[in-house]
Specification:
The chain is built from 2 helices and 18 strands. The chain is mainly beta.
Length: 282
């Protein structure tokens, strides 16, 4: 077998020691390899790195800016800045929009042509409603609970073609404006505002268009007021604005004496307090 391996591979058989083949090892190098030369210490260039201290001024200024901006953002991600807009709508109406997203559930005090009414702001801080114009040059003021006062103005030429009687009730127990008119007269009563306490007010407006096609007739106007523990002795305060084509515009206040606390629960019909409207086509 050894002879065969020798003849086939050309490898000399290993030396035998006590009948055990010796380990196959590579031949030793004929010359010793030189040791690698190490660079001299003087040739090393040492660079010292210093860790810079973290400055917190810039991050703090950035965070402060973010917080300041977020302080003026509502829970819905909109800017807090309140706004009031008023555009002219058909039938001499005013489309009013108030935006105060950072004052949800606020009670807004509106003033229009010397009359007032209060409207609660919904959760979204966005409010929209229609207001009958009580003058051809209509002005509206909205006062928020934080003292912000917003103003809007618009020209409503069609307002001269309407007969309108507006009644403002002040206090927690407002009454209502009652209008009785023939069916041929195109009239309606518009209710505005809510009065949850003594600081609130509601506004009710009877409105009828006057034109060449308007039939003649008389609108009987009266006031109906509930008697409560809050007003049975002191009565109620009301304010009236009357704008009728062909008549001078008038505005006046009313003080309604209380009927006595024995009438609590009753509803009083106050006739002959408001002047009737005599309407006729042009």
């Amino acid at each position: 077998m050894t002879a065969v391996l020798t003849a086939w591979f050309g490898i000399a058989p290993p030396t035998l020691a006590d009948g055990v083949p010796a380990a196959i090892t590579p031949p030793l190098p004929r010359a010793s390899l030189p040791s690698p030369e190490l660079p001299r210490e003087s040739e090393f260039t040492l660079t010292q790195f210093k860790s810079a201290k973290a400055t917190f001024d810039e991050p703090q200024r950035a965070v402060a800016g973010i917080v300041a901006r977020q302080a003026n953002i509502s829970n819905f991600g909109t800017a807090c800045g309140p706004s009031l807009s008023m555009t002219v709508a058909p039938d001499a109406m005013l489309a009013v929009r108030v935006s105060a997203p950072c004052l949800p559930y606020d009670a807004i005090w509106f003033e229009h042509e010397e009359l007032a009414f209060t409207v609660p702001m919904p959760l979204t801080g966005e409010l929209a409603f229609l207001l009958p114009a009580l003058d051809t040059d209509a002005e509206l003021t909205a006062t928020l609970s934080d003292g912000t006062v917003l103003n809007a103005r618009n020209h409503v030429p069609d307002a001269r073609n309407f007969a309108r009687v507006a009644l403002q009730w002040s206090g927690a127990d407002p009454g209502e404006l009652v209008a009785k008119a023939p069916r041929v007269l195109d009239g309606k009563v518009i209710h505005l505002g809510q009065s949850p306490d003594a600081n609130g007010a509601v506004l009710q407006v009877f409105s009828s268009r006057i034109s060449d096609q308007t039939a003649s007739g008389v609108v009987r106007l009266s006031m109906r007021a509930p008697v409560t523990a809050a007003n049975c002795g002191s009565g109620q305060v009301a304010r009236v604005r009357r704008m009728v084509p062909g008549e001078p515009t008038s505005i006046y206040g009313l003080i309604l004496n209380g009927p006595g606390c024995g009438a609590i629960g009753q509803s009083l019909q106050l006739n002959n307090v408001l002047q009737d409207l005599k309407l006729s086509g042009n």
